[in-house]
Amino acid sequence: MNAVIDLLINLLSFLWNIAKLLIPIMVIIEIFKDTKLIDKITSIFRPVTNFFTLSEKAGVALLFGMFFGLTIGAGAILQSVKDYDVDKRSVFLVIMFVSLCHAVFEDSFIMAAVGANIAQLLLARFGAAILLTFLLSRFIKKTDDSLKINE
């Protein structure tokens, strides 16, 4: 019985730690939306989204996923889908990119602490993510499908 209680306590602690990060990021996204900063960010990211033939608003999810990791990136992707009706293809491509290239800075510093070469590590991760996402973007045809999230 103690093992079950410990498991539940650890699960609640994990969820609380994620919520402490995810809720402020979602609030920041809402503030950016209301102040039109999200439009500036998406226009800055336009060359990247054009390169991967993504919808413009998918760039925000890509940015968050790259810097904050899979969990926070998933939250940003869900928020983008909910707010901007991002198409399935763009969501898939963002997930492919982020799965290879998530939390690049924190992971790189951890690996550097154990002796890895940061430049080679970053080059390999970015290169693999860019190559795979680019190739997939050329093979997956564009459609008008969009994802709907129930509120």
Concise overview:
This protein has one domain (26-139).
Q: Into which percent range does the helicity of residues fall?
A: over 70%
What can be said about the biggest beta sheet? Answer: none
Give the helices and strands as they follow along the chain.
HHHHHHHH
Mean pLDDT value: 80
The fraction of residues in strands falls at under 5%
Give the total of domains.
1
Number of helices: 8
> From the helix content, strand content and strand pairing, which structural class follows?
mainly alpha
User: Could you give the count of β-strands?
Assistant: 0
The radius of gyration over CA amounts to 17 Å
State the separation between the terminal residues, measured CA to CA. Answer: 36 Å
Overall spatial form: globular
Q: List segments where confidence is low: pLDDT < 50 over at least 5 consecutive residues.
A: 146-151
Describe the overall structure.
With 151 residues, the chain is mainly alpha-helical. It has one domain (26-139). It has helices at 2-34, 37-44, 46-51, 58-68, 70-84, 88-100, 104-113, 118-139. Helix 4 (58-68) packs antiparallel against helix 5 (70-84), helix 6 runs antiparallel to helix 8 (118-139) and helix 7 (104-113) runs antiparallel to helix 8 (118-139). The longest helix is centred in the first third of the chain and has 33 residues, at 2-34. Residues 146-151 have low confidence and may be disordered.
For this entry, give a set of tags.
single chain; 151 residues; mainly alpha; 78% helix; globular
